[in-house]
Amino acid sequence: MKRPILIHPDPRLKKACAPVPDLSDELRVLADDMLETMYDAPGIGLAAPQVGVLDRLIVLDCAKNDQGEEARPLVMFNPRVLAGSDERNVYEEGCLSIPDQYAEVERPKVVDVEWLDRDGKLRTETFDGLWATCVQHEIDHLDGKLFIDYLKPLKRQMITRKMQKLKRERARA
Ligand SMILES: [Zn+2]
Question: pTM of the full predicted structure?
Fold first, then answer.
């Protein structure tokens, strides 16, 4: 089932989320709903606070289907960056909670990430390139941080004002 995506600014997008103590069927349903919502948007990543749930859960799939890559949906409970490379990478980032706004953000190019998968199994993997950027962007959401928080204040305020306007228009529609 698709869930509505919160649009910035929203206090729920600024909160630090709580670790998931135990996996449950309810949480697996939430993860499946988030994947469905992400693919439908379409997007390559989604964090639980973006659907109003303040749990440490993200989903992502950065496979390039237009280049023939097979879908690779990842569900990560309590994801954690263990280490990041000194080498940095710049990507033009966007966010489903900040529609149609994009900006360059610099992050470590390669990161080691640990998480609990859908079956509660502890996993670690090294991510590079777009996958690394995406997983860091999504984990940031769990700490109440948005990609626009990396931008200069003026640019951030400009985007926030556009989003306030968008929300007003949507509320009237
Ligand atoms: Zn985002």
Answer: 0.97
